[in-house]
Amino acid sequence: MSAMTALANQLRSALHLASRDAYVKGAFVLPALLVALSLPVLLFSNANVHVMFEGAVLSLIRVGALFGTCLSMAGIVTHDISLGGLRAAALTGRGRGGYVASRVILALALAVILGAWSTLLGMPLLLCPDVAFEGVPAAELALRAVACVLVGWTYAVFGMLLLWLARSPRGFASAFFAAVLLGAGVLNALLLVPVAVLIPLSQELAYGALQAIIPILPSGLLADAFVADARLVVLPVAYVIVFWALSRRVMARASL
Q1: Which of 99, 172, 176, 229 is the most exposed place for a label (fewest CB within 10 A)?
Q2: What are the residues facing 131 on neighbouring strands?
Q3: What is the mean pLDDT of residues 210-215?
Q4: CA torsion angle for 101, 102, 103, 105 (degrees, to 10)?
Q5: DSSP state of 169
């Protein structure tokens, strides 16, 4: 069996599992639930509550594309480990490589789909009389949405690497907690560890390290001071490639 055939089979299997996985369904339900709970309040409240449309839609996209992708992939990998799917998929070296690639590709697909789904869910906010506009240009709003999708992909692939390193079956609570940590930016916190280590030694070195690390923090793509440059694509892709390579090494040496 060729590598491309193995990857195609793994992708079909991944899509089949994702279409039936409870974590993935929960990732789609969560932003819909938020809209269902908030929309009646905005439509019928007499409290003169003003909501900024762009901020509300971006918040929904973050819930869906960022947290939802982390939750979906944490759940899928957890099920792979606990139900024996990981062992069945990774009996050969080629199978292991295809398995990792299929999950990385699936994470991107889910981030894009969840981002689009969350955007659609935000459109009914236009019906609310107290929804105002910040005046963010449509192009910038679209780029901010893309940033949420790509950062969600980055966090999810990082989370899968950690789960493959642990290779310990967990329940819903553990997977949900892991998704919360990933969505909250635990990767950014880990990248800042060298700064914390250097502070007692030299504040000058710590400041220099901080200045070097800030431009490569994925969370910078989600900051309010949004700047559309090459980092929007290059940074997430670079992290995914690194985590993908590390995951392949982990799986290649894993005793299943």
Answers
A1: 229
A2: 51
A3: 91
A4: 80
A5: -
